[in-house]
Amino acid sequence: MSRSALPHRWRRLPAATAAGVALLLLAGPATAGTAAPPDREADAPVVLERSADEQADVVEVTVAGTAQLDALVATGVDLDHHVTPTEAGIVVHAVVTPTEVAALKRMGYRVGAVLHAAADSAQRISEREATIAAHRADNRAYTATLQRSAAASDVKIIRADYYTSGTNQVLSVEAKWAQGQTSTSTLTVARDSGPGTEIGSGGTQTISRFVDAGVYLYHRGAAAVTARPQRIQITSPTGDVAVAEVAEWLPIPADSPEGPGYQKDFVTSYLTPTELYDRIKQLADAYPQLAEVVKLPYQTNGYRRKAQVVLGGTTATRVAVDSLAWGHEGGNDITVELADPGAADRPLTVTVTGKAIRVSLATDAAGAVTSTAAQVAAALTAEAGALVTAYTYRGDAGAGVVAPVAPTPLSDNLKAPAGVSRDPHPVYAIRIGKYRDGSRTGVLAYAQEHAREWVPPLVAVETAERLLRNHATDENTKQLLRTLDIWIVPSINPDGGHYSFYDYASQRRNMTNHCAPGGATDALARNSWGVDNNRNYTEYSLFDGYSGASASCTGDTYAGPSELSEPENRNVDWLAQRPNMKFSMNLHSSGNYFMWSPGAYATPGRISAPRPTLAEESFFWGASSRILTAIKRHRNMAVTPARTGPISDVLYSAAGNSGDMLWYKYGIYAWNFEVGTSFQPTWDEAHQETMEFSNGLVELLRVARDYDKDKKRPTSTLSVTPSATEGSVSVRFDVSEPAAVFYTLDGSKPTFASTLYASAGIREGAETLTVPVGTKIHWFSVDAAGNIERNYRPDDDSLTFNRGWATLPTG
Ligand SMILES: [Zn+2]
To answer: CA-CA distance, 541 to 498, in Å (whole number)?
Structure first.
């Protein structure tokens, strides 16, 4: 299924109570401990009348005490929030017309100074008009300049990142060119050679179009450099120019998050799923206060197959034979023989002796064999149906005459030692945390959806072991285990994992054969079966019409017969639906990618699953740079900017992947690692990759802890700059941390239903709004943890939202 509405990740209100403004007034400092609203019926208060043709002033009114203040409030007078106890009494500010002033005086209130006269407002308005007129004039002057500058250029630099990786220095550039869909031109990037140097002095590099599913996304490319450039410039083929500052990607801060004596490096070899599960059981046994092993609710279909054989050579003569019993439960003991009777005019007969099946083939008057594949298959199924079923090859008519075959064993072709269970296999998670009751922020890490990816499971167990072994001595680790509810599943797909280790190293999928009779169900297809567990989930799936998954039972990205058809996938769904689950890491290999949603699009048109909001995307980027910096600390391996971002922006569409289900269905911040350089690298390399990506996984836990502890409210400012559009200005909101901004342009109170400040486009950062000069702008921001700027409460009469004008700053 697909959902168009996102969960309200950024809309959580803090638990603070909503005290009304009027009550705050009565309960102010002057009345503390005594405030109680007057009994209005008993007091029968005088209610002020306001004449429609009068303007109001703000005046001071002094009351003797709380009783008189209550009486004043009961008149219905318009008071602002100002309440000051003084020696002369309580001074309040009333917004009143001359008629109301006279009435208040008649009632005996002491009316004092006029603080703000109606005429003052008129003065402000004429000042405002003059300012706007001046800005309009300024704008016209700027316009000519801007039309030649980057804002009006047909090329826009979206990223310029300098980084080191290993011993290399690299400059990675991404830019969008307005003609990029139709023109195949590369773009040339000119670099300076450091602060204060000329553009071009650092050399040039070209960047090429990134086109996916026929849609131009942007130009990108990286080149080795010998010095860190400060600025770059791109001149497009039309002569337009864009310049940008170069940022440093993943600089490593001096302070390590790992304290002195921090222990790591616990894995010493590749581990099969059986060994992975044994390892987490040992860990949980060693730290019973901190960890437990949880058997997930769905067992796999098992590392097991029927015993099979295909007899015969050419397609028309082939007979496929499958045991009814699983191979390890007797199927492997069955043999089949196709015997030439050695005599003329013999009928086709089948004899079963124990597990030995002997087919005596029919012959003609000359003694030649006449039985066809179809006849033999039918006879086997009819006469030996207690042991086997037989069929012609992949739907062929089977008209070819078979050749005799000596007794041949059927086999499940499974080579794992007997210690590897052939039964439906439980999938185990290790749950780590001091408080494993669902009350803490949940984090899920899971590996080996793809069987042949042998390093990611090691990252999972290494991380579990770091958490447990450092708990007693490392304060940071102790804090993670106090704050979080950590679920680590080292192998989601143990059947495929075992198959990859013992039988077929390139196995990607699980072992379940969903091919229909007449299709690729025979022994020769045994390495082609299975469901791609990372395509069988529920959001933006093949079944929803999205790209990047196969409907073929032998396709390597086979999505399965239906969403969540596979037990492996139902286990992930079960984990993700835990209400406290907020963060996840899906560990894959390879390619050194780091990705998040959207992970799928529909074709034609490359229609993407909904993109995260600007705030969500900036949270993804912010957390990602922390995680990737931790990875880089190990041996200075930089996951590149070009391989960081939404799956479908940097890699390809993967309909029905797990990250998308966790994000769209459950609102979990879901990332995907593509660890290392190959599926099964040399041990030395596998070991290094394990160490570096475990660094990253531990940093994800720190991101989760900081999210959990985040009580700091975001702040935001309005930036107004000249616009190329006459009579308008360019407006942006700047936030102190990743935060959603909701705004209005019509003077109304902003709420969660107001316009959400958005991204300018794929990988472009915040949009620039073009609004008429003088527009009144109201807004507030809310961070990922739900903290709202200035304690504003959009759903009640709180007024502490931000206010600004679309006017250029003066001076
Ligand atoms: Zn994978």
So the answer is: 27
pLDDT digits (tens, 9 = 90+) for 366-382: 999 999 999 999 999 99
> What's at 514, amino acid-wise?
H
CA of 508 relative to ligand 1 center, distance in Å: 8
Alpha carbon of 138 to ligand 1 centroid (Å): 56
- pLDDT score at 47: 64
Q: How far is the CA of 690 from the centre of ligand 1 (A)?
A: 16
Active site residue 674: yes
Position 69 pLDDT exceeds 60:
yes
Distance CA 687, CA 682 (A): 9
* pLDDT tens column, 762-795: 898 899 999 999 999 999 999 988 999 999 999 9
CA 431 vs. chain centroid, Å, equals: 22
- Nearest CA to 742 out of 41, 531, 733, 311 is that of 733
E strands, 553-605, are 581-588, 593-596, 601-602
How far does residue 450's CA lie from ligand 1's centre (Å)?
A: 5
The answer for residues whose C-beta is within 8 angstroms of residue 87's C-beta and 6 or more apart is none
Residue 23 in this model has a pLDDT that exceeds 50 = no
In 521-665, which residue ranges form alpha helices assigned H by DSSP? 567-576, 614-635, 647-650, 658-660
Annotated active-site residue in 462, 674, 737, 789: 674
160 within 8 A of 244, measured Cβ to Cβ: yes
Beta bridge partners of 157: 175
Residue 287 CA to its chain's centroid (Å): 32
How far does residue 588's CA lie from ligand 1's centre (Å)?
4
538 CA distance to ligand 1 middle (Å): 18
- Among candidate residues 301, 336, 715, the one with its CA nearest the CA of residue 513: 301
Alpha-carbon distances, residue 198 vs 189, 232, 466 (angstroms) = 13, 10, 49
* Ligand 1 centre distance from Cα of residue 268 (Å): 22
Q: Are 497 and 506 in contact (CB under 8 A)?
A: no
Q: Token pair 């899971």 is at which residue?
A: 446
Structure tokens that stand for 601 in this block: 């699009």
DSSP characters over 383-402 = HSTTTEEEEEGGG----SBP
CB 70 within 8 A of CB 37: yes
Sign (positive or negative) of CA dihedral 587, 591, 593, 599: negative
Q: Is the dihedral of CA 679, 680, 681, 683 positive or negative?
A: positive
Are 206 and 175 contacting, i.e. CB atoms less than 8 angstroms apart? Answer: no
CB neighbour burial string for 206-219, b if at least 16 within 10 angstroms, e if fewer:
ebebbebbebbbbb
| C-alpha 45 – ligand 1 centre gap (Å) | 75
Cα 498 to middle of ligand 1, angstroms? 16
> At 447, which amino acid appears?
A
Residues 786-808 as b/e (b if ≥16 CB within 10 A, e otherwise) read ebbbbebbbeeebeebbebbbbb
For residue 9, the CA-to-ligand 1 centroid distance in Å is: 28
Among candidates 84, 71, 77, which has minimal Cα distance to 37? 71
- pTM exceeds 0.90 for this model: no
Q: What is the 3-state secondary structure (H, E, C) of 69-92?
A: HHHHHHCCCEEEEEEEEECCEEEE
- Could you read off the pLDDT of 659-671 as tens digits, one per residue? 999 999 999 999 9
For the chain, what is the largest distance between any 2 Cα atoms, rounded to a whole number of angstroms? Answer: 135
**C-alpha dihedral, 438 to 442 to 448 to 449, nearest 10°:** 80
From the CA of 103, how far away is ligand 1's center (Å)? 79
Cα–Cα distance for residue pair 119/195, rounded to 1 Å: 54
Of the CA atoms within 13 Å of residue 577, those in its CB half-sphere come to: 7
Q: Quick count: other Cβ atoms within 10 Å of Cβ 359?
A: 27
What average pLDDT score do residues 172-189 get? 96
What proportions of the chain, in percent to the nearest 5, are helix, strand and coil? 25, 30, 45
Reported as type and span, the H/E element at residue 502 is helix 494-502
Q: CA angle at residue 768 from 766 to 769, to 5 degrees?
A: 130
